[in-house]
Amino acid sequence: MPQVVLKVGDDISTDQIYPGRFMATVLPSETPQFAFADFEFNERLKSGQVPHGSIIVANNNFGCGSSREQAASCLKGYELTIIAKGFARIFLQNSCNLGLRTIICPTLEASEGDEVEVGATEVVNKTTGKSSPITPLPKARQAIIDAGGLIAYTRQRVLQKHGRA
Amino acid sequence: MAGMTIVQKILARATGRPSVEVGEVVEPTVDLAMSHENAALVINQFLDVFKGTGLEPKVWDPSRIAIIFDHRVPAESSKTATNQKKVREFVGQHGIQRFHDIRGDEGGICHQVLVEYGYSRPGMVIVGTDSHTTTHGAMGALAFGIGATEMAGVWSLGSVFNVEVPATIKVVVNGTLPAGVLAKDLVLFIVGKLTAEGANFKVIEFHGDTIRRMPVSGRLVLCNMSVEAGATSGIVPCDEETLRYLRDEAGVRDPIDAVAPDADAAYDRVLEIDASSLAPQVACPHTVDNVKPVGDVAGTVVHQVVIGSCTNGRLDDLEVAASIVKGRKLARGVRMIVFPASWRIYQAALKRGVLTDLVEAGAVIMNPGCGCCLGIHQGALGDGEVALSTTNRNFKGRMGNPKSEVYLCSPAVAAASALTGVITDPRS
Ligand code: SF4
Description:
heterodimer; A: alpha/beta; Aconitase, domain 4; 4-stranded parallel sheet; 3-stranded antiparallel sheet; B: alpha/beta; Aconitase, domain 3; 2 domains; 5-stranded parallel sheet; binds iron/sulfur cluster
């Protein structure tokens, strides 16, 4: 069962998730080393203590600020799931495009260490026994996730345009 | 049926439909697609799209792509220099004309260059791999930030795939801004009122007589910082001032689509502001919506004063600062760093003696570009230091050091404070 490995508050900016001074690093294979670089959590990630599928729980406006895609790709590198009361628009879009799992769940209450199960329509905190409904993503975004991310989706569309699919 | 907001009108045109509803998902065609150094990542993703297709990677329309180097100029590391080299090669191969390299005759911050060169125009759909793409709403466009992968989609097919037609917050500003109170103070006040996520997924449309009288340079400040309230875009509908700027300053000769919202458009919310009652504002660490009147934080010791960026690096900003420090000296213990937003501005400020006034007072003039705004190079802060800056973000670590603090303000507050070494009301 996935655990909550980090709990953060409102307005976590992309400067906190992926500081600007590492922006020359762009490849998704290289960005994860700088995830939350100014926080102790970075050490936990890099030392392999955080299993794939682990959960970050956030309040409102997670990912506000810069459009830097590294903020999504660095978390995707550890296959984290982000459950937030709300996301900033560009971050949410980047996450869907790159396949970072983002769940909008406005009423979830959870602490670090809680075991949490993400279902299709609700999030269940196994530690407290409470379940909270998920706000579904808009259909168009789901289509991109279903295609396996925006690159795959665009590739399909390009092939269609050239009568190859 | 209610009329349409300006965003609905622009998106209807860009999807070839008579109207669009708020909340529906559309795929508008793109008129202008802008990137800066992060074009290097866009190129990676773009080439990836074509992998295994047997098709030659080709951008949909090179004339609609603009690339401007600004974030790390001149390159601060071999990594950046290599990325820039790769972009330069791509630009050449694909025939991208609107490319602004690191040059004193045509360079600058992307958001300033796009406006100066008349690339951003009313009615356009403009996307940029930069969150402050909202700036171009000042020209009456729908302009918003997207990620690099999404831009790869735009380069491939010429449209943005899933845009939810945003609801619009109407901000009506009437009255005359008092002396010493600038567009920056107004937008800080608005961000404070709306909060950092108050306009998330929404657009801010600016109206009122204060806006009508405001030159393009001030409108750019408002739209630039709309994203700090989470807005998809800030928009000032095209009016005489927009046309004046485009014709007289940007040298645009083609027909202009002066799209305007319907009088009976439906708004999500209306915020009315009396400009005459405003004082200078300061956004305190570490969120942009932590806004206070300058009096509440006056006396706070500052170590570095920054004037510049896509928010406040224009000629009128430099002139305001110069008029305050001219003939005087910066306080000991304060560094004042000035980043003009473009080389055109730099040249104009040079000719008018503005740069001389600043340098003689003790300021350091850096080359146009993003400079210390995003903490990559030039003007990093020491542990425990405080910056007072005319830039647009004060998130923890924004200027390169999570152990420092950044306050945001107008060029007038910044310059007045550089003389005293503490946050100072420019009206005093
Ligand atoms: S000046 Fe700052 S906010 Fe503006 S584009 Fe550059 S980094 Fe971004």
